[in-house]
Specification:
It is globular and about 50 Å long. The protein has one domain: Porin, CATH 2.40.160.20. The longest helix has 20 residues. The protein has about 190 residues and is mainly beta. A hairpin with a 6-residue loop joins strand 5 and strand 6. The protein contains one helix and ten strands, in the order αββββββββββ.
């Protein structure tokens, strides 16, 4: 009897969570532009540049995304990274989504006086997107990237966005990977909801 009551309580909580989850209010249609500063620890090299990001909500749970990053490092080394992919969002609560992503990445490195280097990669990610306050959104993402020629990398990103209006926000992301740390500061324009 006691086990039955416990099971029924858990099932009721699960159904209540599902009902609330259907009311998720996150917008997956947006464009972002920002400044990136990165530090490659192993090489003692710093770089900075810009990143352009975009996402488009295809259905209530599915979105496609892309990004382009252009960085200039010490010693006139330049890198360009292009990423395109898709994601699926599971609303856990009205203010929390779990997101799974798969993406293709292309990186090009230009070293003066040497052969240019480029590599393709497959990225798999899992993350959380939550609304801490009405105007404050927090994110945490873990992505594993497997390059064709350059090995693999595990990338952890935490970030936040402050929404001045429903459509306009400013944000910061801090990214940690096997090579170093990057800080992104940018603005977002949301156009989906």
């Amino acid at each position: 009897m006691r086990k039955g009551l416990i099971f029924a309580s858990i099932a009721a909580l699960g159904m209540a969570g599902t009902a609330v989850a259907a009311e998720s209010s996150f917008d997956y249609s947006y464009v972002e532009l920002g400044y990136v500063n990165t530090d490659l620890d192993d090489f003692n090299v710093d770089g900075d540049g810009f990143e352009l990001r975009g996402s488009l909500e295809v259905t209530n749970n599915i979105h496609v995304f892309t990004s382009y990053t252009d960085l200039d490092f010490d010693f006139n080394i330049d890198t360009n990274t292009f990423e395109v992919g898709g994601g699926y969002a599971w609303p856990v609560r009205s203010n929390l989504d779990v997101i799974a992503t798969v993406s293709y990445l292309r990186t090009e490195v230009d070293v003066p006086g040497r052969r240019d280097f480029d590599d393709d990669a497959l990225g798999l990610g899992i993350g959380l997107r939550g609304r801490a306050l009405d105007q404050l959104e927090l994110t945490a993402n873990l992505q594993h990237v497997d390059f064709d020629e350059g090995g693999d990398d595990t990338i952890f990103t935490v970030g936040g966005r402050y929404f001045f209006t429903r459509a306009l926000a400013a944000g910061v992301d801090v990214t940690f990977d096997d090579d170093g740390t990057a800080v992104y500061v940018g603005g977002r324009w949301s156009f989906g909801q």
